[in-house]
Amino acid sequence: MGTVDRADRFYGEQVLDRLNSRMAEFVARQEMFFLATADGQGECDSTFRAGPPGFLQVLDAETLAYPEYRGNGVMASLGNIRENPHVGILMIDFSQDRIGLHVNGRAQLVTDEAMRRRHPGLPVDPVPGRRPQMWVEVEVEEAYIHCSKHIPKLVKAPLRQGVDGAQTAAGDDGQAWGTDDVRRKGGDYFEAAARRRGLAQR
């Protein structure tokens, strides 16, 4: 494709094996990221993580960590990490700088208790009663820019106080953290279960 020289130049100039100070500052203010994992056979999965600024912790220039909470019970990402520690994290700032940061590295699972013993300054979750089930600690192997060329500009909705005192986006009825209520989790939005039931009844 004729891009070898460009790729070599990019790797030589832009790809670091640790976070520099600007990258660390960028990570510390992110409220979401996309996570890529693969199992032992290389079957891939991608998912989304979100939280208050700082939920993705910069432990040092070579280490990131984020909390894992109860989800849908599938635990695809954690299961993949147990089989294959290689992960990719993509953070995109859609509203302020319209720029992204890739971090590729090796992950390991750490219990909340062990993580807090090693890092006593970790923040306590702002949602009352919610505690991480696990932490994912990522050893940084590559950190590099995702250019702004095709990143859309998005405007954050103003925040308001929810009924439980937590801040939520205007028009939102509040995050349903930890709920098992099918409707509040999104129900069968894509009608996958309904279609399976229909096929089973034929």
Automatic annotation (TrEMBL):
It holds the Pfam family PNPOx_N. Residues 22-146 form the Pyridoxamine 5'-phosphate oxidase N-terminal domain. Signal peptide: none annotated. This is Pyridoxamine 5'-phosphate oxidase family protein. It comes from Streptomyces iakyrus.
